[in-house]
Write a structure and sequence with these properties.
About 30% of the residues lie in helices and about 25% in strands. The protein has three helices and five strands, in the order E-E-E-H-E-E-H-H.
């Protein structure tokens, strides 16, 4: 997979891949207009939405309704390092959702590809290239 990252103006940095354009911006306090999520916000959203794909798939495979199911994601900072120390994903289900599937929902969310890559991060190689 190859992405093209460009700088359309201001504090915007956008990614283009396949038929998609993903726009990012910084908040006004960071020199941007706040017209799009920050790159880090997209990163965090990718964790919850990835878990959601697995929860959705689990429910669809079993014919279970997804209405009323939400995932609440909370991010906890480690104030010593300034980094994220823990991320909580709470799968919220309506009262009528069968209790026998609660643990299976958790197991399905744990299959999230983004989470797996965080647990086993890739190596990075950053270079410059004259084009």
């Amino acid at each position: 997979m190859e992405l093209l990252i460009d700088f359309p103006g201001g504090a915007r940095v956008d990614a283009h891949f396949g038929p998609y354009d993903v726009m990012t911006d910084q908040p006004p306090a960071g020199g941007g207009e706040g017209e799009a999520p920050t790159p880090f916000a997209l990163f965090l959203a990718s964790i919850g939405t990835c878990a959601g794909i697995y929860v959705l798939g689990f429910c669809q495979q079993r014919g279970l309704p997804t209405e009323g199911i939400h995932i609440k994601q909370r991010v906890h900072r480690d104030y010593q390092t300034g980094m994220i120390g823990r991320i909580d994903l709470d799968i919220q289900v309506p009262p009528e959702f069968p209790e026998k599937y609660h643990a299976s929902l958790i197991r399905s969310a744990q299959l999230c590809t983004v989470k797996k890559h965080l647990e086993h991060p890739p190596e990075f190689e950053i270079t410059t290239q004259v084009v």
